[in-house]
Amino acid sequence: MMLKFCLGDLCLGALRFPRSICYARAEKFDPESPAFRLPTEPFPDDVAVVQFPSQPVESQLPRLTFYPHAIRYVRAQYRRYSIDMTGTYDDYLRKFSSKTRFTLKKKKRRYVEHAGEPIVWRTFRDPSEIDEFYELARQVSERTYQERLLKSGLPDTEAFRRELRELAEKDALRGYILWDRERPVAFMCCPIRDGVVFYSHVGHDPDLRDRAPGVVLFVLALEQLFAEGRFRAFDFTEGEGPFKELFANQFTECADIYFFRRTLAHTSIVLGHATLESLSHSAGRTLERIGLKGRVRDILRSGKLWDRSPRDSRPPAHDLAAVATE
Question: What pLDDT is attached to residue 149?
């Protein structure tokens, strides 16, 4: 497990905990889950951290709780958004107001005005196509702020590439690329498990942000996924945001819960991380109140404050396999 220390969009560093256990995510709240029994049970032997990513909860949990043998740290609590895909795409579109449908059409039209018509995009699902998809997606990912700042772009490892092939061999992967003429400008990498499509790794060229290539590709891919008629849901995974809230038609209250073995070192790490998170949120609220949050965010994501040094190729805190097995 890796715990990242971030100030807004800027990743300051990370700590790895090799002696860790990560439980698979439950789809529904379960009071008998180990996430709620662990405080009353002995901490697992020779384990530093027990993690419960995106655990369904029924109420707001305190950020920190100290038990005799463990520290419970609620890293984040949020709505996990998803799309119910049991109906048709036309049924799904009816959830939007006429104003929103007009806005989506306008975004598509603006992209066409820039890149030309027809829109050039492609779906990748066959094992023989995966290497091509991976190379194209990496071209986009290395230009995104997620990779430059958060070190969470599409992993640049041979192990991850093999994992994509293995998923494709099981027909458990969909990859999507959008082009601006000859140049790939947006990608989606979506593993599939038990009829659920996961919004795992995505990115778009920041230079085309005003043309919304990510939104255009998402709408095209979603319509195609509905047309396949074999999926029950599209899961936006952990975290919130206006984009997820706009397109989702259901959600589950979730929390990222960590249990650290209670030691002086772990106590210091958790308190430091929680303090940084609170500082980051407070700074964000202050900037938003004075009307500067968007401007500061854009400057940070542009990368103009530092040299674009060679990319750190470490894998993110959770990889595609972790998302697909949640």
Answer: 62
